Structure formats: C-alpha cells, structure tokens
Amino acid sequence: MLIEDEERERHSDVNPSKPSSSTNKDASDGFETASDGELGLNGSDNDDETQQQHQVQEEQQSLSQTDDLKQKAFEQANDVKLEGNRLFGSGQYEEALSQYVLALHLAPDMPLSVELRSICHANSAICFSKLGKYEDAIKECTKALGLNPSYMKALLRRAEAHEKLEHFDEAIADMKKILELDPSNDQAKKTIHRLGPLAEEKREKMKEEMIGKLKDMGNSLLGRFGMSVDNFKAVKDPNTGSYSLSFQR
Predict the structure, then answer these.
(1) CATH number of the domain that 104 lies in?
(2) Cβ 3 vs Cβ 53: under 8 Å
(3) Fewer beta carbons within 10 angstroms: which end of the chain, N or C?
(4) Does residue 246 form part of some domain?
C-alpha cells in the first residue's frame, strides 16, 4: 500500500526592522533567536519522520515478498495434489498417497490453504481405504473434517471405513451428520436403514460376550465354595422395576 506523505510548508513572517547596531548586538548575543530554534527543531522532526517512512516501506516490502512466497508455495502444493489425483486415477494408490503427503508439507500457513489441506487429507483417506488401511483412513478423514466440518465426502469416506471395521454405530453417526447437511441425501438414508439392524445385532452380541465373561469370573470365585452363578437368580420387582438376587441350590 502506498503511503502518501504530507508536505509541511513553513513560512517565516518575521521581517525585523533595522535596529541600531548596538541594540541588535545586545539582543542577540548569547541567545538563540526564535526563528533559529524552530528551524533546528523542525529539521530533527523531518529526519525522524523520514526514518519512520523508510521503516514502513521496508516492512511493506517484506510483507509483499512473504505473500509472494506463500502464493508460490500454494501453487506448488496444488500442482503436487493434481499429480496425486492423476496417480490415483491410474490405480497407483501408494504413489498418489505420497503426493498428497508432500502437498500437505508444502502448503503454506494461509487461509487459502485450508481447503487444499482438507482435500489432501480426504484424498489420503481414500488411498488408505484402497490399500485396506481403514484405521488410517478414519484418521485422515477426521483431520479433513477438523479443517472443514461440513466436508460431506470426508464424512462419507469415514463412514465407509467405519463400516469396513464393523463400527456400525460410528458409521450411522457420520451418515446422520450428512443428513443434517443434506436432508435429501438418499445414500445416507439407505445406509442408516441398512446398518441399523447390524448395529443392534452387534450390541446384543457384545452384551452376551460381556455377560459370559462376568459369569466365568463369578464361577471362578464361587467355585471355591462349591457354588456357581447358576445358584443365583435375578428376580424383578413388578412395582419398582428393580432386581434382587435369590439363592437356589
């Protein structure tokens, strides 16, 4: 930004009359006239102002050079990302992944880079999914969503990776977020409908496994006294809904 300097004009309106030589000598000997003092002070101010102007210009030039470097770094990172897209399109997933990682390394710290970085994370995720590394795919999608919470492709890819690992509740949660962003998304609706019974089945299976482990633990302790958990029955109180244990031989 160009800064226009204000030129200060100074005019001297002092037009002294010609005094006698003795009077003039007595008035000026050993003293600085008002006109001389103002000139000296104003000269100092001008020097300070000029120095400040030079500092501002240097700072502006430095900022401009920094912006230029960041812009070039952004363009380079974008070119690397495009190369990653080309490699992905030809089925070279590991090579494409390395390009996305490089693009993330090159992307400068500037607002323009946020979208680029989120795309590179999401593209890295799909590469990991193609390579069967679903945990890594989930991590990359989470990073992409940290930069862009409404990035639907990242939500979709994370949901797909969760489903591959049988994280059905997590996949459903991502699909519900997609519906919040796009209520008419049929894919999300169908996926939620399809995964719902699988999630319930998994929860029941986990519950049975937990009960089985607790039963084994109880039998190992009660066995010392010639008893087992089968000697204890849970009886539900119809009035309160609470349970009590009764011992049976």
Answers:
(1) 1.25.40.10
(2) yes
(3) C
(4) no
Residue 58, Ramachandran bin (φ over 0: left; ψ between -120 and 50: alpha; else beta): alpha
The answer to whether residues 83 and 158 belong to one domain is yes
- Work out the number of other CB atoms within 10 angstroms of the CB of residue 74: 17
Residue 47 lies in a domain: no
Task: Give the residue numbers spanning the domain of 180.
Answer: 166-223
Tens of pLDDT, residue by residue over 195-241, are 999 999 988 877 777 766 666 666 666 566 666 656 656 666 777 76
SS3 233: strand
For the chain, how many helices (H) and strands (E)? 8, 2
The CB density around residue 148, as the number of other CB atoms within 10 Å, is 17
Q: How many domains does the structure of the chain reveal?
A: 2
pLDDT over 80 (residue 170):
yes
Element (H, E) at 89: helix 34-89
> How many angstroms separate the CA atoms of 157 and 76, rounded?
27
Residue 20 structure tokens = 């006698």
Give the 3-state secondary structure of residue 243.
Answer: strand
Q: Where are the alpha helices (DSSP H) in the chain?
A: 21-28, 34-89, 93-106, 113-130, 134-147, 152-164, 168-181, 186-222
Against a cut of 0.85, is the pTM above it? no
